[in-house]
Amino acid sequence: MPSIQQLQKLLEADPNDTFVLYGLAQEHAKAGETEAAIQHYDRVLALDPHYCYAYFHKAKTLEEDTRTDEAIAVLKQGLAASKQANDAKATAEIAQFLDELT
Question: CATH code for 4-101?
Fold first, then answer.
């Protein structure tokens, strides 16, 4: 995966590129930069509310930061979005993670 700096450069070319924003969120999460990760996941979801794995990984980031109630709320939103998008794989994975947290 490209570095945060490389992804930032790509984002400059297209600030609404959800794939790049998601990549930035993932890299910030991997670096333990929770708030930056969440901000990028939120930008992804604002641009594309059916980007199902952004919900999953945002919830994972929140859960790793011991913000379980927030993670549960995000997973519930993601579950609704994945069902609406008819994404059976995402629905199953989000539902399983939600079950683990509740």
Answer: 1.25.40.10
